[in-house]
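User: Here's a chain of 222 residues. Predict its fold as tokens.
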Amino acid sequence: MKAVVVGLGQFGYATAVHLERSGVETIVFDRELSLVERIKDEVSHSVCADATVPENLLAHGIGEADVLVSAIGDDFEAQVLVVVHAIRLGVARVVARATSDVHLRVLRAVGAHEVVSPESEAAGAIVQRLLMPEAGSRQLSPLLSTLEADLPEGVGGRLLCDHRDDLLQHYHVALFAVERASEKGSELLVDPGTRLEVGDLLHIAGSDSGLAHFLQGREGES
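Assistant: Prediction complete.
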């Protein structure tokens, strides 16, 4: 796999280093020589050049890249130009950083395959840890997370579908599976007619606020 990262601010630098450490051949571009020098020993190739000039991208075979991450944060015009050039050169997947909702819409409009907002996503992950510090939770997107929760007391014997309906009505979260231990190991049960048993682990999805409300409600019942 071959990746290109344009812009070596905090987000771009971290992205490039993580890609390289994951075994991805990574090329970085930035106009600031000091930034290029700083990262040169941590990536496959580092280039001090203006990535808004398509000839500079062509000279390094960027069209053959599997993914290009445009991480420019302080020059939106340059960000848009890099995205447009990358798409025209045939990069398979172009990911762009957005610093506002307006930028997000523009980058999508010019053809970016994926737009990320690292500050917003990081904030969402922090809030999730604050709201659910002890739950086995995982953020899938800024709007959707999952968590694992033990079966509450008094629920054993109920049907999965009935408990699912109650959680949806009271907390606006979705019970999508039950994990149950057996002699062969654990198994995931999704049949609505499954009868819940003591020791089951519930797999629930919803917004961070909905999941936090669910956990707080359980604490209030205990």
